[in-house]
Amino acid sequence: MANLYPLIRPVLRQLPAEVAHNLTVRALQAGLGRFMIDRAAREPDPPILAQRLWGLNFPNPVGLAAGFDKNARVPEAMRNFGFGFVEIGTVTPRPQPGNPKPRLFRLEGDQAIVNRMGFNSGGIDAAIDRLHGRPRTAIVGINLGKNRNSRDAVLDYAEGIRRAAKVADYLVVNISSPNTPGLRDLQRRASLRALLVPLLRTREECERRVPLLVKISPDLTPKEREDIATIALDAGIDGLIVSNTTVDRPAGLVSRYATEAGGLSGRPLFAASTSLLADMYRLTQGGLPMIGVGGVASGADAYQKIRSGACLVQLYTALVFMGPSLVTDIKKELAELLQAEGFTSVAEAVGAAARSSSLSKRAGASSGQS
Ligand SMILES: Cc1cc2nc3c(=O)[nH]c(=O)nc-3n(C[C@H](O)[C@H](O)[C@H](O)COP(=O)(O)O)c2cc1C
């Protein structure tokens, strides 16, 4: 079947970003995704990319990040593009409209997006109803948020866990979106402990024991990073997602939308999110599985995230600029890089950068002594 995406993309570019996004999701819901990919997307993944984590068999480590399919409309269509797993949400317990429009901006010259969507959500029940009826082929994570006007964040997340545990393969406590006032404060030491302890208890009370991950912000101070690592290990969460969008604006952005308020994603986020990943790998001594996200646009980017400590990676923004065939391209390049460096699996490469830097430090120290 012909890949029509190169013809569709110029049309989408002419439309306001949110209109283009909604049209894309509708087209995928209508089954038109098969006209947007090459045959290569349907081929089985190379065995070197497979990984077992949290009791789940990931066919490859490249996932769709939260925010694209907020309401669980198209997880299977996204899996058909070749993603190894799909994260839906953020969903909130009750439906809410999000921030006023416009709230989504493409920074074409920077290969970036600024968004201040503000958890626009059809509510968790609607998303879960859709997932109940789905064929269970894709690994689906559910990303949970709190309602903007909610007084008690713990109650909102706990409600999300109770409802989503029935259908999710993993759950994410999202406390790092910059567009819900006060949300990111939940990452601070005292609040984080007070949040995670009851949420893990709630998770234990559910019929199915679902892995519980926490998604963090790239804008954390060094002290906040240390605190999160300590609390994450003490409390016993199953993993971290590193990272959400940034409110920082790195030097050199050229687009006129760069100064819009909201979270920046895409290429300019790669360095900050990867360095946070490396920090968290070091601070947790490799003891906590992590999903690396932020600016992944090639197999080399995915490989760098894995070497920095990620077991899995996710992407969103690059898909907007490069189209769905990107997923196949990333997997192919990643498999080649792993093989070229002598790895026989993704798992072997996780954190390789940290290991080689500590080896060279040790070698430097011992040669200094001699
Ligand atoms: C339009 C848009 C909406 C997003 N919405 C969410 C969201 O609802 N929940 C969430 O955890 N992350 C959300 N994100 C963040 C992404 O999941 C991801 O962490 C971030 O964009 C970095 O990855 P990328 O550079 O590959 O896009 C959103 C990102 C974009 C661009």
Word description of this protein:
40% of the residues lie in helices and 15% in strands. The chain is α/β, with parallel strands linked by helices. An eight-stranded parallel β-barrel has the order 3-4-7-8-9-10-12-13, surrounded by four helices. Helix 5 (153-164) links the parallel strand 7 (140-144) and strand 8 (170-174). Helix 5 (153-164) runs parallel beside helix 6 (189-205). The longest helix is centred in the C-terminal third of the chain and has 18 residues, at 352-369. It is globular and about 60 Å long. The chain starts with a helix and ends with a helix. The model has no long low-confidence stretch (mean pLDDT 94). The site of flavin mononucleotide has 27 residues, from strand 4, strand 6, strand 11 and helix 10.
What share of the residues lie within helices?
40-55%
Query: What spatial order of strands do you see in the largest sheet?
Result: 3-4-7-8-9-10-12-13
Query: Which whole number gives the mean pLDDT?
Result: 94
Low-pLDDT parts are none
Radius of gyration: 20 Å
Bound molecules: flavin mononucleotide
Structural class: alpha/beta
Element-level helix/strand string:
HHEEEHEEEHEHEHEHEEHEHEHHHH
What is the first-to-last residue Cα distance?
65 Å
| Shape label | globular
Strand content is 5-15%
Q: Major sheet: size, sense and barrel closure? A: 8 strands, parallel, barrel
